[in-house]
């Protein structure tokens, strides 16, 4: 078993017992490391164990596996910390969380729904902490019931660097040097990135003045600092789901409550919250029930047509690719609109405008859009073309991943598909209807102020910032950054990824996108060569994969392709080197 070198302050590895002693079936065990044990690392681990179990006894490999996760909740990771505020909600209801582990599993962890206290409210949008507790339980159960040929150890440390030698891969951390490994999987979650120019300028301004600039996450840190913001005006950069999280923390998290359709302030919250974004458009909520959601479900022939169109699109130029996708969306949207009382005449024009410039079709103000979106989510207003298209697109997310992720599509076409998917997130990745209703109540109460919501000019002042939009202006001493940074490789500051980039061992799919990887997750270096046995899954590989922000993607086909690739490379007669393939 690879062990860390001695160093003062080392934490000992935590070994999990197997159900039997490892039985060597090869000259030596396959040596693996997984750096990052959040949901994506857990999905990969489960896929590996399932792939091992599916093989004939004589084909099974003895495996020594080290996992590296500095946080206290392996399986959940920091984004789904079971101890975080219960105000942080998933953006899908319980009924839509379909991430049961592969293969046989104890009943208590067979599915999220069955694991929750019975009977669950399937329409409820659960807290991220609830899902985190479930994923942590899945990890513990898996670690306690490993097959006999797998020996697993956990190291509570983050990986800071990675290098290759003739005998394999070595990992560096504050706890020491680990290795050698035949295979290393990096599963870093949301990698740390350099601030964009605007944010970098604001960070410098906050350091030089009394102004406060804070990221929306971690939520508990934001909530603690916000105890000093009573009566202040607070700007929030962004208008997506992270902004809605911040709004809930800065109202309900500070003692406010909703009662009889009104907001009852506690007196501890900021006087005004001023969110803003480049287009000033709030996300529309998801359908409020399974019955309403079913109205937008594509029919099987429509889904087959989409998959065929996607297959054509992947071999086409960017503009032609989006036209092919739109041609598949049109008939499905028209059918849905006809069945729900919507206007079927504007679908083609809506899609053409979306391809040309995302969100350019919307001319109503943010409050009107939010009110209409809530009515559509509850079925009291016929859906617009955009709402129908967004919900249909959400139902096709798995098909989108299946089509794009295993293929070798041109960078330009992948970038176009990612841009189209990102633009439709204002519909397909919306919040619960209840959260949208709370936001409307806060707007009506004057707590959330949209006077500068649409791409305001922003001036630096000695006290903070001044937001300017046409004739409206607001001065704020506090700014919350709720914009999720791009995983563009050139901007990554995550130590292990930045080090690999600077050494030429990883390369970007194209400028503005993440790391280039093969379908089995092996990374491709700056010379176009595969770095055998060095793999990456998740958001940092955006461009090689698509639609990576869903919890379902963590437990999807990408994890299984990685697991099968590991075992194929370890098969008798296969090369077991860490050099280029």
Global shape: globular
* SS-derived structural category: alpha/beta
Classified by CATH, the class of the largest domain is Alpha Beta
Structural domain tally: 3
Strand order in the sheet with the most strands: 1-4-3-2-8-19-18
What's the story with the biggest beta sheet? 7 strands, mixed
Distance between the termini: 26 Å
**Rg, please?**
25 Å
Low-confidence stretches: 1-26, 576-581
CATH superfamily of the largest domain: FAD/NAD(P)-binding domain
Task: Report the average pLDDT across residues.
Answer: 90
CATH topology of the largest domain: FAD/NAD(P)-binding domain
* Strand composition percent: 15-25%
Q: Work out the helix count.
A: 18
What is the percent of helical residues?
25-40%
Topology, number of strands: 19
- Corresponding CATH architecture of the largest domain: 3-Layer(bba) Sandwich
Task: Describe, in plain words, how this protein is organized in 3D.
This protein is α/β, with parallel strands linked by helices and 581 residues long. The chain has 3 domains: 14-192 and 488-569, FAD/NAD(P)-binding domain, CATH 3.50.50; 197-279 and 441-481, 3-Layer(bba) Sandwich (FAD/NAD(P)-binding domain), CATH 3.50.50; 290-428, no CATH class. It has helices at residues 39-54, 112-115, 128-144, 197-208, 219-225, 241-249, 290-294, 300-313, 318-340, 347-356, 366-377, 385-395, 397-404, 411-428, 433-444, 495-502, 551-554, 557-569, and strands at 14-16, 30-35, 63-68, 150-155, 159-165, 168-173, 176-181, 183-186, 212-215, 233-237, 257-259, 262-264, 272-276, 457-461, 464-469, 472-476, 478-481, 522-524, 530-536. The protein has a 7-stranded mixed sheet, with helices on one face. Strands 9-17-10-13 form a 4-stranded parallel sheet, sandwiched between helices. Helix 1 (39-54) packs across helix 18 (557-569), helix 11 packs antiparallel against helix 15 and helix 12 packs across helix 14. The protein is globular, with a radius of gyration of 25 Å. Residues 1-26 and 576-581 have low confidence and may be disordered.
